[in-house]
Every structure is written in structure tokens, then in C-alpha cells.
Amino acid sequence: MKFPSLSSLSDKAGRSFLRFPLAILLAIAGTTISIFLLNAENHFDDALLARCGNGIVSCYLGMLLSVATTVWAERKGWGRKVAAGAQLAVLGLTVLYFFLMPDHFEEKTVIRWVLYALGLHWLIAVIAFAGSHRIDAFWQYNKDLFIRILTSLLYTVVLYLGLALALEAIEHLFNIDLSYKWYADTWAVLVGVFNTWFFLSGFPSNYGDITTVDYPKGLKIFTQYVLLPILTVYMGILYVYLFKIILTAHWPSGWVAYLVLGFSVAGILALLLIYPIRYVQKTSLQGNMARFPERANSETFVGPASSRSYAHNLRWFQHCWTRLSYLGRNLRSLGYRQRASGPFWQ
């Protein structure tokens, strides 16, 4: 096995920085603010704390938007000046969003952050193939992203454990009292800078047609024999709960909607992971298992989806519009549209 040299590692890090300069700089800025918070203790007021939190969130969302913009620019073949102008626009939006955020934390603000983050992650996953029908290439691209995320997390955790043990050894061998901030700062740097840089250094760049799909055996085993059985048990629980509702005539007031939406998200993930082998299984049992996520999100999901719709409508009549009920109704409409028009990546 040939180990990479320091020069090759530095060259790869340099190439990834040239490809994603704004994203890496925003990751460094967010990490710097995090370290400042970890070391400031109680020497600031709530307004400054909120501002620092807003800065971290702004850097994170701006980093995601910068990555999505880079992918779109590469797919469209933009020149350097146009791509640089797009990145400057992303930077401007990041700064503008920071100044528009309130100087105190609210529930609606946190919900908005989560929705923005989820939306930008989804944008990165689909923007390279928006409007196209290259499904195999789309799957290979997202498979590479998924594996790269797991690899980055593994490297980050292992590296932190090694450095934490090194700090612990320094404390005991040299009788040096190291504060917990050393461990916290190390974790912040690894998660904010190293994890981001390492992930972006292996970000896929092939957006063209793919004739053969590389399907890892470990991913196949995990999806078919771990994820799908969990989905089956989850669906069984939802149907038993639906029968209980019918027998007792006591309708839920909204909480069941979260369970159904969670099942829908897990089903979409399973459908995405198992897509290439749905119709190439050697046995009928494997074929039925591979096509289960598609069926679970359509015909066999009518009962739980109906209870979810009724729960949303009941909650609307009781409390009128709330943020979460509005989000649930939009997700429900998106799900109906997806089942009617085809896969969401088209």
C-alpha cells in the first residue's frame, strides 16, 4: 500500500482550496467564532452571544450555498470571472443575512435555520442534475457524497481521539494542567476546518453520463438487510396505530404527522440508496425487497398518509396556521406531487 506524501497532500489541499475558496474561508471564520465563544466564558452579554451564534450560522449557510454555486458553475462551464462574481454574490448574501438576523434567539429563528440548512443540503445533492434524466450519474454522484461524508466523519473522530489522548498524556507525564478548552478547541478546529476541507478535497466532479454504476457491497447489505427491515417494522407500527384510531374513534391532534413524515424521509433515503438494484436482483425475494421503498411511499402508504392529512386539518381548525403545521402541509403537497410526477431529482 502506497502512503501519500506530504507534498501530494498539500497539493490536493491547495487544489480543493482553489476549487472551493469561499466555502473553506467561511468554515475557518465560523470555527474562529466558535473558539472565541468557547474561551470567552461569561465575559459577554446575551446580545453578543446571539450575534456570535448568528455569525456561526451565517458562515455555515454561506458555506453550503457557496458549494452549491460552485457545482452549478462547473456544470454550466462558467468562466473564472463569472464564477468569481457568483461567489462574491454568495458572500454578499451571507453578510446581509447576518445583519438581518435578530440579536436574540427565538424558536422560529432556529426552525428557519434548520430549514435553510436542509434545503441547501438538498440543493447540493440535486443541482448538478437539475432538469436532466441521467439517473445513474445522479445516483453515483450522491453515493460518492454519502461515502465521503462518512469517511470525513471517521477521519475526524479518529484524529480527535488521537489528539485527545496526546493531550491527556502531556498532562500526566509533564504535570501540566490543561484546561478543557484545549479539548473543545481541538474538536472545533477538526470539525469546522479539517472535516470541511477533507470532505471538499474529495468532492465529486464528474457530472456527465455514467455507463456503469459502482454499487458497494457493504452499502447493499446495509440497505437491504438493515434499513429495509427497519422501515417494514416502522410501517407495521403505523398501521397498528391507524387501526387503533379507527376502533377507538379518537383521532390524533398532530403528533402522528411527525412519525409519518419521518417515515417518508427514511423511505426516500432507502429508495435513493437502493435505486440501481431494484430491477436486477437474481431472486424474486430480493427484487421485492429492493422495490419496497417505492411501494411504501405510494400505494401501501395511503392509510398513514390519510391519518396524517386528517391530523393536519384538525390541528389547523384548532389553532389556525402555525409554522410547523404550514411546513407539514407543504411537505404533504410536495409528497403528492412527487408520487404523481416521478422521482424528485427530475
Please indicate the percent range of residues in DSSP E strands (runs of 2 or more): under 5%
Instruction: Kindly name the structural category.
Output: mainly alpha
Mean pLDDT: 78
Separation of the first and last Cα atoms = 41 Å
Helix content: over 70%
Low-confidence runs = 282-287, 298-303, 338-346
What is the string of SSEs from the N terminus onward? HHHHHHHHHHHHH
User: Care to count the β-strands?
Assistant: 0
Described by its quaternary structure, the protein is: single chain
Overall shape: it is globular
Total of DSSP H or I helical runs spanning 4+ residues:
13
Radius of gyration equals: 23 Å
Number of self-contained structural domains: 2
Main sheet characteristics: none
